[in-house]
Amino acid sequence: MICNKLLLIINIDLLTIGSGERHIVVMARVHPGESPASFIMEGFLDFITSEDVILLKYLRDQVTFKVIPMLNPDGVALGNYRCSLMGFDLNRHWRDTNPWAQPGLHAVKAFLIGLEKEHPVDFCFDIHAHSLATGAFMYGNVVSEDQQSEQQAFPKIFSAFAEDFSLSKTNFNKDAVKSGTARRVLGGLFPKSYTLEVSFYNYQKDLRSVPYTQKAYSDLGENLARAIAEYYRKYPTL
Ligand SMILES: [Zn+2]
């Protein structure tokens, strides 16, 4: 549990998986209406905790996952589409969290700052759903030229594992409107910080439109975990 304070009805859960020195942060549902993010999270967690896959046992020795499945549980419980209990779009307030106005987000940010001081954090993934775009894609940060290829390495691997993930739609930007997002603010702490977006309705395959199902979202979560495992196979840290 990360926070239980005034103006937070439901506690924010934190899951710790693995025992490695290097850490990966995975979060979802800062926007409460984006329920596909929870199906992705379900597929990710089911796979990453599997005892049957040898590769995952190796991965869990290298890496510790810090997972926050629901960043805005009050908003979800209230049936809000985008905001918190207090009416804030929390994914525009990471830069200037206030312990009274955004208590959950404030506590999560303090936790992540503390985590970064104690451990190397290789990745941060913040999972969302998109009401206009098709397929799955990522937003990343604009970084210095020597870090650019490192920043682009993960989306490339992910695209090889998920047929619905589009590398061409993945983009790296620093637009002002996104300056308060997790990806932008936490990018200052964890250089490889991404927003994972998925369509609310479909993806393209062989020029056909394939509607997303609960299973397809869950598969995307599993493929995210497979891509992480492949990343550490390719760039081992032990
Ligand atoms: Zn969102």
Summary of the model, kept short:
With 238 residues, the chain is of the alpha/beta class. It has 7 helices and 9 strands, in the order E-E-H-H-E-H-H-E-E-H-E-H-E-E-E-H.
Task: Provide an overview of this structure.
The chain has 238 residues and is of the alpha/beta class. It has one domain (15-234): Zn peptidases (Aminopeptidase). Helices cover 37% and strands 21% of the residues. The protein is built from seven helices and nine strands; from the N terminus they run ββααβααββαβαβββα. The protein has helices at residues 36-48, 54-62, 73-78, 103-118, 145-161, 182-186, 214-234; strands at 15-18, 22-28, 63-68, 121-130, 136-141, 171-173, 193-199, 202-205, 208-211. A seven-stranded mixed beta sheet has the order 1-3-2-4-7-5-6. The chain has a two-stranded antiparallel ribbon with strand order 8-9. It is globular and about 45 Å long. The two termini are 30 Å apart. The chain binds zinc ion. Residues 31, 34, 128 line the site of zinc ion. Residues 31, 34, 128 line the site of zinc ion (ZN).
